[in-house]
Here is the input.
Amino acid sequence: MKRRQAIKNLSILPVAGVAMGGFSQIDSVLSTKEKASPPKRDFFKELGVIPRINAGATMTYLSGSLMMPEVLEAINSTSHDFANMYELQDKAGAKIAEMLQCEAAMVTSGAAGALVLGTAACITGKDPELIRSLPNPPGPQREVIIQKTHRYVFDQSVRNTGVRLVEVEDAGHMERSINESTVMALFFNGAESWGGPPDKIKHEEFVEICKRHKIPSFIDAAADVPPVENLFKYQKIGFDLVTFSGGKMIMGPQSAGLLFGRKDLIEAAKLNNSPHECPIGRPQKVNKEEIFGMYAALKIYLEKDHKKEWQGWLDRISSIVSKIEKIPTIKTETVIPKGPANVFPSLRVSWDQSKVKISGQDISKALEEGTPSIIAGGRGNSLNIGVVLLRPDQVDVVAGRVREILQKAVV
Here is the structure.
């Protein structure tokens, strides 16, 4: 390898050796003397944390999804130098907006952080006094419209800005509830997916009402890719602000997200965010590596072969089925949610408990307490196995453990 090429390759090497091993990667690559590599540290073992196999879904408590190698490369290769964070957010946002075909974009501390910043932007605009005053701006309490069936745990992020949520039942009720204190209307895109009733106010009507009354509309679509088309769908409908999680199926940093839409609102959101020192978003700092990583993740996600990826997931299901289908009374089903959230295939396994004496809950417990620890959801006489977050080498591991547990329960 030529020296110039070796130096170029250093940009993608991790810096763990410098921080922990007492020598630099430059020494390792360029030294004329061979040096033994330091033993690799097992940080899971060092901290006593059990590594898990995620045969479930992109749950935050399980650290979302695993970052793609290209995302880790973006993080590692940008960790060696400083950056002006204002410049980085602006330039990364411009590239992201170009990819998403929208006016403006920014990287946030997850979709929850985007909810805070987007709401703050609707309250303050670019007014420095209002920005400094949140969450208690002068005058009447600001209000945000939301469908009653769309109330959810994450609307706490919206309420953190000091607003009052006004619940509405239908379009007529929404029209009557808008007043001079209304600063925004929030649409939770996954309400039906979370087991709620059908939306009484559909996307298009919701946006139309907002535009007629000149109030910004904001849609939380955090978990709503795949399909990839959803990244473009809601802005085309006319929502002023859109947020997606970065650490779910886009497979970027777990602590990053996307906020995009109207340029004036994105610029106001930036003013309410770090690195500015006083605003409500200062605690939601996103470091430079996460911004680079989120940019890389989105680029890769948009360019990948989504049909091939989907078929790969179905192949994983087929592989698992082939290893457990001969167990007595076993039935299997590929489950694909209707959406819009978490639309990807998983495997549901069920059995006759008079022949296989075990419950889904007991299988889940056995999987989690076993080695390796596997997270999968079981209840009654069924087990749901998620396949989209498994590493390729983990598919057979999961299949083998499930087969082992079920076979032991056969009577």
Summary: The first strand starts at residue 52 and ends at 54. Residues 306-324 form the longest helix (19 residues). DSSP finds 17 helices and 13 strands in the chain. The two ends are 62 Å apart (CA to CA).
